[in-house]
Design brief:
The chain is mainly alpha-helical. It is built from 4 helices and no strands. Helix 2 packs across helix 3. The longest helix is centred in the first third of the chain and has 14 residues. The chain starts with 13 loop residues before the first helix and ends in an 11-residue tail after the last helix.
Length: 79
């Protein structure tokens, strides 16, 4: 049985990343408060990330993804 990938397809927005973070945070049975503590950030940041706010700090987003075990891969679009 293969694991479902959320979202399926290309990440096109901050909302897509927010959905991924929410999915994997819940899968690991972490609350927003617990994830914020692990990341040494505020719960407001976690909430804004999960809700797709596009103006949050990129380095913090990458840190959260690292903590959750999520890799981001960039590839050239096929033409």
């Amino acid at each position: 049985m293969s694991e479902e990938i959320i979202p399926v397809g290309n990440i096109k927005s901050a909302k897509d990343i927010g959905k991924i973070v929410t999915h994997y945070r819940k899968k690991q049975k972490l609350t927003q408060v617990e994830l914020a503590g692990l990341a040494q950030t505020g719960t407001r940041f976690i909430s804004e990330l999960e809700n797709g706010k596009g103006t949050i700090q990129f380095d913090k987003v990458m840190h959260i993804l690292e903590l959750l075990g999520i890799d981001i891969v960039a590839r050239q679009r096929s033409q």
